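We were asked to recover a plausible sequence for a given structure. The inputs and outputs are reproduced exactly as logged, with field labels preserved.

PROBLEM: sequence recovery
POSITIONS: 248
GIVEN STRUCTURE:
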């Protein structure tokens, strides 16, 4: 499955452990649920972004027609005007894909995006949910929590997360409680840390991870809906501005 290039390293690790421990069906079911939710969120956001992108691409074509017809803009100038934005969008996509291939640059880009209002909250929820659900999947396959967190950090290739997990393990070895030790792990929010700490004492850690995964999925869905609404309202305002500029 690794040769297919369709799965993240931590997912492949969970599949391999599930196969060895006889829990492969459970691992695959959890993966299927996660990928299905991710695809639903992606389609919803893409449907919201497609409309304003189309408006932005059509706007230069329409707004420059009067200048072209009256002679205020040459044909060459008109072609330049209508191709600038598509060229910028294409160039931006190439840059983003190049950045994502480098772990350090990808980590820096994600850090910046997580500071954007609403979008940052969506990304944080998705990151936390993916981390916790992957940990749950590994633990369900017989891996301990320390090994699960360590494997996920290494497979993420995120230097900050790797350093945070290393500090977390050092704190555990010094006798610090699980919830206090998790204070260095930014991917897990404070409420989740406390819940995991309490669950560790009661021996219900896997149930706590299931609960947290569900709560993060609901929170992400709510934030995604907010982002969808904002983009839709922005699209209407943009269309109104284009019509006003065309008429005036």
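RECOVERED SEQUENCE:
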């Amino acid at each position: 499955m690794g040769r297919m290039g369709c799965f993240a390293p931590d997912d492949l690790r969970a599949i391999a452990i599930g196969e060895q421990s006889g829990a492969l069906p459970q691992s695959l079911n959890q993966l299927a649920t996660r990928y299905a939710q991710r695809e639903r969120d992606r389609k919803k956001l893409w449907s919201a972004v497609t409309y304003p992108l189309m408006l932005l691409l059509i706007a230069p074509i329409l707004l420059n027609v009067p200048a072209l017809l009256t002679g205020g803009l040459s044909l060459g100038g008109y072609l330049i005007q209508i191709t600038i934005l598509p060229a910028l969008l294409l160039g931006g996509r190439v840059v983003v894909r190049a950045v994502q291939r480098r772990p350090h640059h990808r980590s820096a880009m994600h850090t910046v995006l997580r500071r954007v209002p609403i979008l940052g909250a969506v990304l944080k929820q998705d990151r936390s949910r993916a981390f916790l659900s992957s940990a749950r999947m590994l633990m369900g396959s017989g891996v301990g929590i320390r090994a699960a967190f360590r494997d996920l950090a290494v497979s993420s290739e995120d230097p900050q997360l790797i350093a945070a997990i290393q500090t977390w393990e050092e704190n555990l070895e010094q006798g610090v409680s699980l919830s206090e030790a998790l204070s260095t792990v930014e991917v897990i929010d404070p409420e989740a840390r406390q819940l995991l700490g309490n669950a560790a004492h009661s021996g219900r850690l896997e149930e706590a991870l299931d609960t947290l995964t569900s709560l993060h999925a609901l929170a992400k869905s709510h934030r995604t809906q907010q982002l969808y609404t904002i983009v839709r309202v922005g699209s209407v305002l943009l269309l109104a501005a284009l019509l006003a500029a065309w008429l005036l």
